[in-house]
Amino acid sequence: MNLRGAGRLVVSLAMLLQGCAGLFGKEPTAEPVPTRTPAAAQNGRIEIQRGRAGFVIGAPHGTSDSATDMIARDLARLTGFGLVVATGFSHLDAEGRRYNVNRPTESVPGTAARLEGETEAARWVYLAYRRRVDEAAQGPLRFYVEVHGNGRKESAGRVEIATVGLSKEEAWQLKTLLELIRDARVVGQDNTPRFEVWVESHDPIWYTASAAKQSGVLAASDRAIHIELPKAARTTYREAYTQVLAEFLVQSAALLVPTGR
């Protein structure tokens, strides 16, 4: 794509974004997990906001993946998507175990999927989260987006995206789209890093979300993406990269789930 074409893309993205923003101004509501949930999960909360039917942004680790709760809320506001945010389900013990929320297991963050353990309490939390996602979708879940964060040193310079239901061509299109939007937004800004974009099937991503794909919410949507953000994208440069992701999600929705499909 030449510079003129890239410029047109950015303009069209901005216009589309402006059209979506503000259409769903209802304040989010935070609902406690049902009282019959095990005592260890009673401090957890699941926030839901309805938006565009079938399109939902989730932050299942809003506490342990720091700032992903704020990023998800901002993305929902900017895109008009529905929103589900879970907080308070981490730090269960001295080892730092958490309920994984988007799947019926518990583990220490960063543990390999094969080492996660399914428990009755974790299943209750997962089912509560899953119900909220269904409520936010208001029908079939057509496009589901999860926002995560990590502190892995080797992943500090990149955004990783795992995918569900996308062809290799569609994955390449998303990779190219995010790179174009990133460059339009951050190139030339003082000190704002140009994070690499790695997308499943094209790059050897570390965070494949394999457990959630097998037994979690990611398995419930025909099309889904799992976004892993490095710490700097969630802290110092959060505002810049939230804008990048908002434009990316609006355009991705138009690409993957055309109107009338």
Question: What would you note in describing this structure?
Answer:
The chain is of the alpha/beta class and 261 residues long. It has helices spanning 3-20, 68-79, 120-137, 168-186, 210-215, 231-234, 238-256; strands at residues 29-32, 45-49, 52-59, 81-87, 98-99, 105-107, 117-118, 143-150, 158-164, 196-199, 224-230. Residues 1-27 have low confidence and may be disordered. It has a single domain (3-256), classed as 3-Layer(aba) Sandwich (Aminopeptidase). The strands form two sheets. Strands 1-2-4-3-8-11-9-10 form an eight-stranded mixed sheet, with helices on both faces. A three-stranded antiparallel sheet has the order 5-6-7.
Beta-strand segment tally? 11
Largest sheet: 8 strands, mixed
Distance between the termini: 27 Å
Average pLDDT metric: 86
CATH top level is Alpha Beta
Low-confidence runs of at least 5 consecutive residues: 1-27
Count the helices. How many? 7
Quick one: overall form?
A: globular
Helix content: 25-40%
Classification by helices and strands: alpha/beta
Query: Going across the major beta sheet, what is the strand order?
Result: 1-2-4-3-8-11-9-10
Domains, number: 1
